[in-house]
Target: dTDP-4-dehydrorhamnose 3,5-epimerase
Amino acid sequence: MEIRETALKDVYEIYPKIFKDARGYFLESYREDLFEKHGMSTRWVQDNQSFSEAGIVRGLHFQRGIHAQAKLVRVISGKVLDVCVDLRKGSPTFGKYHAVVLDEKLQNMLYVPTGFAHGFAVWKDAVFTYKCSNLYNKESEGGIIWNDKQLDIDWGVDHPLLSEKDQTWPDLEKFEEISRGGL
Model:
């Protein structure tokens, strides 16, 4: 398993070794010892899975306060552009984002620490799965509008299908104002 640092502190891209033969393939999708070595949260308490068709954008979501979640995300099948945005109060990279293509062929993953918003655009119908370090709490959920002009994320989707909720999140500037500078 190869673990790569990104330009955003504590965000990691993870590339498992895939062992293929005539029967199919095998890979390790999680290794506690390797994650601990890199300082990543290792207490996973909830696993989630979704299916989305190409052209859908989900996000940018986060959980606040004591319900904040680190996530380990990947696609089982399909292809997505996965994005995380640093919302940590006082962070030198506050308001910066990291994007990576998660692909069924690579089975690569992204580790998203607490204090980040997260979302993805579906480029090829995808089964998306993620581990969470905390349980979901509806009252603690929040988000940033997916097409925030300050972030200027190129999602690679021309006319995305969005949930009602994902169309109404505040932009980054309004988020800073109402949250007093970050999560």
In short: Helices lie at 32-37, 172-179.
